[in-house]
Amino acid sequence: MRLCTLLLLLALAFPYEAYSLSNQNISEKLGWIESQDNRCGGYYREAPFLLTEANKLKITSNQYSIAQHGISTLEGKVTLNYASRQIIANKAYLYRDPITGKLTAIDMSDALQLSEPHTLILAQKGHVDIKTKTNSLSDIIYRTSIYQHTHQIQPLSAWGQAKQYFQAEPKIYNFDEVSYTTCPPAHPVWQVKASHIELNKETGRGSAQNARLLVKNIPIFYTPYMNFPIDHHRKTGFLWPTIGSLNRNNSYSGYYVGVPFYWNMAPNYDTTITPTFYSERGLQLADLFRYLTPNSNGNIRISVLPDDRYFPIFKEKQEQNYSASTDPFKQAELNNLQADSNTRSSLSFQHETRFNDHWSGNIDYNYVSDDYFLEDFSKNLTENAQNQLPQQGELNYAGEHWSFTGRLQGYQTLHPVDVDSVFTNQYTRFPQLLLGGDYPNQWGGLHYFINTEATHFDIRNTPGDSTKLPIGDRIHAQPGIELPFNWPFLYLNSRAQIALTEYELAHVDNVTPKHQDRGLPIFDISSGLYLDHDINFFQHAYLHTLEPQIYYVYIPYRNQAEIPVFDTTVNTLTYDQLFIYNRFSGIDRINDANHVTIGVTTRLIDQYTGMERLRAGIGEIIYFKNRAVTLCETPDVCTDYPDNNDNKRRLSPVSGVLNYNMTENWSAIANAIWDPQTKELDNQTVAIRYKRDAERVINFGFNYVRNGDPFAGIIVNSNPEQSGKGNQNNLKLTDLSFSWPLAENWGVVGRWSEDWNTLHFQNLFYGLQYDSCCWSAQFVAGRTFTGIQLNRPQYANQFYFQVTLKGLGTFNPKGDPTATLRNNISGYESQFGQDL
Q1: pTM for the full model?
Q2: Predicted pLDDT of residue 380
């Protein structure tokens, strides 16, 4: 809501001079009822009144004198009803045309009261000229509801006063000496006053002269003139300025001031141009262009800062820090930094389109001029932590039996020299073509399917790495057939597939063949029982299920050591992963397999609501042979190599999962991987949430991964003799976040995420907010871990400050903190600063 709301509401009002009245008297006249049922401490009671048919006028009076061609006088309680409007006054004069006798004008005076649904206006006198369709009133008090309810006008409601109201032309309204607020009339925290306001509902614009904002009757803002929108349509004009400071790691942007200008170019596209002045860098020009068509939508963001004054100073500091380093990666990153232009820029393009019911496409392209742009200019902490910027486009087809995806995909990898971690370049898919077919319920109940792929992979070397990485083409086809049997208590699905893959490679050594083929048959059987019975816990009825599962897979061994790894990794073991035939995420490796998985799931389902109260599962793989297919050949490349003891064990770690909705408010999720050989946990995740409503949320999480801390600086394999050293590399992370109201109208928000292995926090957010019925304020500050520099953790700092005068507008000079809180507090849905 903005100042336009005030002006639109005043257009409905027939103003009542009450400047001499106390706030208590105004409260009584406007029908304010004290109550503790809401944050305003009360509400407006609306009195019922008679509604008449449209275009039908009904006038009643206790005393009257009627004249056919002169002035008729009505006294006592004069009531005028017209459609949904009722006017009551102690005296009224009706003027008629002396020739035709038709009613031409009405004067009403002496405690005039006008009522409309959710609106009440009190005035001393008023005039309506029926012939010229003009009207005026004077000395006014009004109140009207911004959001409408039945019988009771709840917040958000507005009230105010005006000296004079006059309407000379249709849909053009003029007011003199106007005031407006949405605070309770007994205790107005803020008010807006203006000497003159004109509203033009034809153009959707309003203008105000000598507008003042008063807080506790103290003027804090004045403007001699302003022009503003008075409806919900987009209008060209300046938006609230942004003010703040940026200081991250070794990059200092100083203070900044941005003045956004919104240009409503057409009903289906617009642009926001934001010149921002940085005290230490110069002037940046940014633009956000948005568009919408019947079949597509998207946006383009672009920013340019010519000749950044601070960037040369930053380069010189990094030269001093790293010029003596013998690390080839640091030297390459330093050379790139020195070659970077001092003109900084960025581009982001997102597009989605749907051509018809089957075809669609999307583009997500992101680019920055140098590796430090996000560190220096991003006002979003999540965005600042990115180091892989996607650059991709897709064309998709979805039919009844066939699906197709054509994809061009790459990444801009950032290589900042002031971060100890080395971010490696990713392979590009240029292009990738995917075609899939699916024909279930065919002859004899058979299910036929096929998945095919053709991809060209290319890569640019990571700066400082002279290794020539392989590139090439990969063609893959995987047809299969499945015979499913399903009964109410039992299912048995057998499936046979064959994976056919062909590679044409370049940039390989003389030993590795440039052309490679791989053919692998895949056979698996999945089966399970479904058993259930009714039980009662604490006099509550539940359906208890027991669902044992058995899964067998057989894949013969094929030597795949010479096949390059383009887009494949080892999947993290989870309960669901136990029932998947390939332990690798891509198709550069397909594991050899001869094992059976045994698992069991149990559930508790509320018989009254159908809600799943509890789901628990546990399972383990029994291997009949060692795993010979690995991701790499030596431990210095990855942890999944041939001599790794994990590939020789007969039993997998035990995997368990638990989802428990304890009550309507409490829920818990837990996943654990337990190694029966070492008698230790390999992986553990626990998350507990309490959510009473949108304002009361508490989350607690704990994450443990053995040998899983990427910032410990220790490479550990799974050999037993190194298990002691591995304790130094175990990831132990706690995460606490919350949103909670304190005293009346006050609340706190926060998040604390701590890495207990290296003793530094990952995220730290804290905030205090005040939210009443007519105004709100919010302060949020935080730090986010961005990496290790010179063996010291580095952080990005940010703070937000937001003030909302409800029904008038919001001032948030550093941006709306709501998105940041939603990204950091799971379940945060607070409508802070809004009253519905």
Answers
A1: 0.80
A2: 64
